[in-house]
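Figure 6 in text form: structure in, sequence out.
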């Protein structure tokens, strides 16, 4: 049974899933079993739950990289296909912040951020790494927004973990996406930098009118920054509501644990 909090009535939907299931090859149990999920445009949603419950799989589906699922899925008003990737013309609408940053370590910050424009620039130019004035302007704005302009010409492998995360976020912002997906954006950060990055993500998404969906194994830390928690267990939604509705007892249930420990650092 799904526990519902006060998420309110939906406006325009950034995400709509119906009767969706997915099972990895060779596995008996499905990793996703979602009767219906709707996420409002412009909201900040955290996917929470224990390791292996389907959070990252759901992000890959929304990004258009998951194959073989069944059901109906619509992102930003466009139906997804379980067999083929979205067309190039729509790829830049969705930005993905990877858990391990996925940056080109030997390249400069500027070059990494410009890589976020590869899906938008002329297809021939993208093959040779040539970028237009529009691309350069978008990259500059993204670097300013996350506070890394002074590191623009520095190699990424000379940056700290927090600085790398800012580069990864700037690369996504340079895409000018309407939907930002962040897979464990705090996993490599200390608590202080985690709060800074959460505020940064929220502010940048809000300024662009983008929807933000993040997975997190630190529900207590992320709660003040998000509009909504969606908890998964066995690929199904077990809670959908506002963070303030989640107490220690419910958190223990979400993480299948009744020992009363602090779940703010519960393992992904």
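Output sequence:
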């Amino acid at each position: 049974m799904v526990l519902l909090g006060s998420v309110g009535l939906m406006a325009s939907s950034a995400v709509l899933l119906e009767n969706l299931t997915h099972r990895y090859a060779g596995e008996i149990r499905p990793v996703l079993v979602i009767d219906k999920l709707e996420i409002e445009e412009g909201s900040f949603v955290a996917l929470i739950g224990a390791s292996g419950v389907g959070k990252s799989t759901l992000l890959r589906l929304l990004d258009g990289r998951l194959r073989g699922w069944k059901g109906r899925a619509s992102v930003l008003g466009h139906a997804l296909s379980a067999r083929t990737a979205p067309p190039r013309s729509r790829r830049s609408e969705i930005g993905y912040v990877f858990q391990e940053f996925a940056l080109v370590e030997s390249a400069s910050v500027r070059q990494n951020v410009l890589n976020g424009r590869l899906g938008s620039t002329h297809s021939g130019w993208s093959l040779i790494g040539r970028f237009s004035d529009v691309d350069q302007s978008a990259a500059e704005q993204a670097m300013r927004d996350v506070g890394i302009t002074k590191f623009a010409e520095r190699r990424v492998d000379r940056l700290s973990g927090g600085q790398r995360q800012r580069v990864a976020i700037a690369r996504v912002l340079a895409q000018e996406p309407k939907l930002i997906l962040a897979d464990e954006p705090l996993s490599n950060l200390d608590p202080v930098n985690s709060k800074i990055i959460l505020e940064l993500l929220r502010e940048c998404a809000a300024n662009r009118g983008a929807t933000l969906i993040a997975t997190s194994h630190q529900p207590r830390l992320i709660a003040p920054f998000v509009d909504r928690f969606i908890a998964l267990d066995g690929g199904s939604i077990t809670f959908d509501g506002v963070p303030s509705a989640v107490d220690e007892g419910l958190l223990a249930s979400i993480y299948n644990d009744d020992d009363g420990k602090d779940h703010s650092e519960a393992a992904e």
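Caption detail: The longest strand covers residues 13-22.
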